[in-house]
Amino acid sequence: MSQTWHLIVVALVLFNIAACIALLIWTSRRRADEPAEGAETGHVWDGDLREYNNPLPRWWLNLFVLSVIFSIGYLVLYPGLGNLPGRLGWTSSAQADSALAEVEARRAAIFATFKDRSVESLQADAGAVQQGAKLFESNCAGCHGTDARGAKGFPNLRDRDWLYGGSAEQVLASITNGRNGQMPSFYSSLEEGEVRSLVAFVRGWHRGGIDSVEEAAGRRKFGITCAACHGADGKGNTMLGAPNLSDNTWLHGSSEDDVKQTILFGRNSQMPAFGGTLDETQRRLLAAYVLSLSQSRQESDPQ
User: Fold this and answer.
1) Does 271 appear as a known binding residue?
2) Does 20 appear as a known binding residue?
3) Cα(227)–Cα(116) distance, rounded to whole angstroms?
4) 6 is in an annotated binding site
5) Inter-helix orientation angle 256-265/192-203, to 10°
6) What pLDDT score does 284 carry?
7) Would the annotation count 229 as a binding residue?
8) Which of 8, 10, 232, 289 has the most CB atoms at less than 10 Å from its CB?
């Protein structure tokens, strides 16, 4: 703090201590008009409730004196008088740094056992996957959920539907560098009928039941407007993060209104990069855990 505030704080603290001492001295003196100890003061309430001149218990007074002595000793040993550090040199920031260094040392010892191992190797190690799960809870669960099943606008990491690819290298790249997925708005370039046909075609791709005329119109418009990113077959492009539209996985919702909203106004999805907050070993552990989620589902699916 500045020198001015340092002096103000010192003055206020010393004034309060002096005031406490003065209060003790003042209250210990007997006033000339004060009744004798144990005598009535003359104050009566409710007809029979009388006040007597009884002093405070000695133990209470002693505690008050000890609290003043303790405060003086504390200010000598610890910081409390503005910028004065105290004789022990203790600071809260130094204690926090020491505790943090201790935690970091324990963390480093844990992660050292997984250093320089490939994602595939870590994925096969139950202990590594467990550490990855802890990293996931701390860094990823806020968006993808504690069960990694995602939410509207946040991908499900258990379904093997990968926007940017599901190989170890691709998942690790997503964690390290983050992703920024953008779909442009077609509000000003599509007529209402074209939007309707396109919505029907995209929604009916995997479920069928669409009118043949509507399907032909939607397919034609899809080839002109959407195929450059999503592919002519609608299976997407992991290089661009363009989703597969031919399956039943919907990142932003599958209702008619959801799909129409996506086409008209576009979407902007961003995943933060963890290259600056997690080291290489931690990112590999996290990738191993994420891949283990989809792998475990794949193994449990009926053949």
Assistant:
1) yes
2) no
3) 41
4) no
5) 120
6) 97
7) yes
8) 289
